[in-house]
Design a protein that fits this description.
single chain, 364 residues, alpha+beta, 8-stranded mixed β-sheet, 4-stranded antiparallel β-sheet, 10 helices, 19% strand, globular
């Protein structure tokens, strides 16, 4: 008697069942680890074409600059800083900044607070676990039902603008630190937006008047121990859909940036803020600035990897965006059409994270 085989339809049905079981448990990846698993569930196993890219890259982190913001308000130093940021934003799409004015202890306390939240008992965190992103929420795998494979990460999300969460909704274990971190880093984002505007040959405030960072979302990422890091990934290759992302990370590493045909390790620099260009800024700059793929590796370190990112997006969802008129010419015509912010982000949240990048949907 021939052995029974499972049809593609039944494979799909089984996968959907396993996804729902994972999602409805409201425990996230941390819950799987706490249960004592020694092998990862099949929904987390990535396809061979992804796993093959996890081998060491021939490139080094020297391509991702660390930029010192000392003297940024001085007419003697500012032009050189603008030039460094422009070169980084127009090539690799990533850079780190130091001397940004935020005390190092703010970063340390925020990293510790995010870890403390994720280390809470599952039953304490479960009421926050949901797919909606407004307010305060805990989620694992934002594109869980769209992706080919799940990734090894849980995320605390706090919406600050344009519809800020009630501070009382932020878990007490991290509330004070999350609020202070946001207060301290928002001026850095505003400064960088001005420098990026100058790098395009525009006035310092040109990008600011577009309310490009009026929408702000804080995320506290937790990458727990993985028993089989060669079969999955912490967060798959993707570009950020918004304008600008500011990120801090602990000293474990694992963040990689796509460079040529390989991946560059973005090694942690104590006290530095990682900055990367989002898809929307690539569009608005008419591709003068580049939004670049990046990912996070899974690892079997007994200590979890913690990162904290703030995503800066436009605050007015009905406003229309596209390449700035000042950056369009016969020599450099508009690469993209126009669209509303609402249309833009609706498309992003209904597709797989690593599928076709956002800018490609709006090319002319």
């Amino acid at each position: 008697m021939a052995a029974a085989t499972m049809s593609p339809t039944s494979d799909s049905a089984q996968r959907i069942k396993e996804l729902k079981q994972f999602d409805e448990a409201k425990a996230g990846v941390k819950g799987l680890v706490d249960s004592g698993i020694t092998t990862i569930p099949s929904i987390f196993i990535n396809p061979p074409e992804v796993l093959e890219t996890l081998k060491p890259s021939p490139y080094t982190g020297a391509n991702i600059p660390t930029i010192d913001l000392s003297g940024v308000d001085s007419p003697d130093h500012r032009p050189a800083i603008v030039d460094q940021i422009k070169r980084a934003a127009s090539t690799v799409g990533f850079f780190q900044v130091i001397s940004h004015g935020v005390p190092l202890e703010i970063f340390d306390r925020t990293i510790a607070a995010v870890k403390a939240f994720h280390d809470l008992p599952g039953e304490v965190k479960a009421p926050l676990y949901r797919r909606e992103i407004e307010g305060v929420s805990l989620r694992s795998n934002q594109d869980l039902y769209h992706s080919k494979a799940a990734y090894w990460r849980d995320t605390l999300m706090v919406q600050f603008d344009p519809k800020p969460a009630d501070p009382k909704e932020i878990p007490e274990v991290c509330r004070e630190q999350v609020l202070e971190y946001h207060r301290q880093t928002l001026p850095v984002a505003e400064l960088l937006l001005g420098l990026l505007s100058e790098g395009l040959g525009l006035s310092t405030g040109r990008l600011k008047v577009l309310t490009l960072i009026g929408g702000q979302t804080f995320v506290g990422n937790y990458y727990p121990y993985c028993p089989q890091p060669d079969l999955t990934i912490g967060f798959r290759s993707h570009t950020d859909p918004g304008v600008l992302t500011l990120l801090i990370q602990d000293d474990l590493g694992g963040l990689q940036v796509k460079y040529k045909e390989g991946w560059v390790d973005l090694k942690p620099v104590p006290g530095a803020i990682v900055v990367n260009i989002g898809d929307l800024l690539q569009i608005i700059s008419n591709e003068a600035y580049k939004s670049v793929n990046h990912r996070v590796l899974a690892q079997n370190s007994p200590e979890p990897r913690i990162s904290v990112a703030t995503f800066y997006n436009p605050g007015a969802v009905e406003d229309v965006y596209g390449p700035l008129p000042e950056l369009i010419s016969p020599e450099k015509p508009a690469v993209y059409g126009e669209f509303t912010c609402k249309e833009y982000f609706t498309k992003f949240f209904t597709k797989e994270v690593d599928s076709t990048s956002q800018p490609n949907h709006f090319r002319k």
